[in-house]
What does this fold into?
Amino acid sequence: MRSLLKEAGAYMVIVLPDDTALLRRLEQDLHVSPITCEPPPSSVFGSRFEAVVPDQHERERLLAALDSHLLEELLVSELVPAEVVELVTAIVTADGDATALGDLRARLSYRVEQEVPELIAGLRNDPDALAFLLAACVYEGLDYRIVREEADRLLELSEGRLTAVLPVTDSEGTRNKERPNPDFIFRRPLTELLHAVRASRQTREIRTEGAYAHSVESVAFVRHRQAEAVLRHVWREYGQLSELLVRWLREVNRDSELTLPVGRVMGRATSWGGGRRALRHIQALAESERTTSRLIAAHALGIAAEDPVLVAEVRYRLQRWSLTVSPHLRTTVAYACGAEFGLSRPDVALRLLHTLIRGVRTEVGEDEGQARIRLAVKVATLRLFQDGKEEIVFGRLLDWLSMDEADAEQLLELFGELLQLPEWFQRQLADETDQGRLITGLIRWSLNSDSSFDVTCRALLHWADWGRWDETLSRAVERLFTALARSMQHGEFRLFVELGERGFDGWVGRDIARTSLNRWRNGEQGEAA
It folds into this structure.
């Protein structure tokens, strides 16, 4: 055959599928080297399109549905014949309707994504091929030696996690069977797991919670409230599983995206179990050294308190924990006061916070536990204040300061923190209400206390700055500073000096401060020093 072909000056072309075993056998038997010959996509498209639609006018009509130059963009050199055939089929099926044709780029790439699971499935038992596939995907276009080296490095780093099965040896060291590798990375694909539990992956959405926006493709069950039904069932029916769930959930990362749903589950679980030990798992979280566990407990207590049977026990436990020596339990109480439980019961929350404040020492020897409690109390109070409970919080603060046993320094520092949220204060001061006069008096007290001067002064300087663009705040600051200037003690004097040194022209109240200081220097106003 070869002699005849040579005499005739001809060649015999054998077209074969891309089958590695078949090509290797061809090389061995016929002693020829197969040549990969990929026809240009444009040639394949022209031949296929003409074969399917013989009439030239009809082909022109169908192509008119495409945007100009789109066909050239689609027929790139990397397009394989099967994709070209798919492209022709899509054009013919659309029958000249651009709407029906849709986005051809997306349709072609979607087909590629559909074929990936089949590709992965075919390589499950071949760790070398899996590593090479991943390396080729990352380093496509580079020299094959680099791809091979990176594949070997990936295989080594995987430490057996790309191997689907592991050998099992008997007592004599003989391998007689295999077992699935529990660490196999490709053990179960997400799509299969979602289908198994009757859930789906939702359409991508953009969420803006937190410091920056991020995309989310959330998991949702097909049936409404299936998640709660499953958890309630396993919690009741499988006793040991509840202990495992608690151990698992109490060690999540400190992220509100995680702690909030975990807190909801732990709170609902109190009614699933019931009995005299319904809150036992929450107390274990509340006693934990991990801040995250205590935050979860705080959210869980708020959910548990929604049950009319359990609300009394939740209150009792929080009251008892607020008096204990354990800083972990006491910080949990503060967290609960700033979460669902406290926001829906501000009076109860403020009583608990007052108990916590009275139990915190403010002397120099304050330990880390005491500092954490103070911080938690401050955060909880600020959250109550921000949640529309301004009048209640301010009223309780005045009551606490009027008590003999009240720790004035702590409370005045807390008041200074509240001044960082000026909206409610500025309305009262601007309208000269009864509350406004009480606010002025408390600001004066806070300025003349060494421990609270800095935080109060800082807040008032911000007011003077922000007042340039807010008419209500401007009026509030002018009336406040005018009242402070009438009887200037050392705290007011320090505030006005700070305003004169650090403020800029246009800051509200700066002229009042300058005039008051000049009067004092000229001996027209007493006190201050």
Observations:
- Residues 225-387 form one domain.
- Strands lie at 165-169, 175-180, 199-201, 205-207, 214-216, 219-221.
- Residues 104-122 form the longest helix (19 residues).
- The chain has a mean pLDDT of 85.
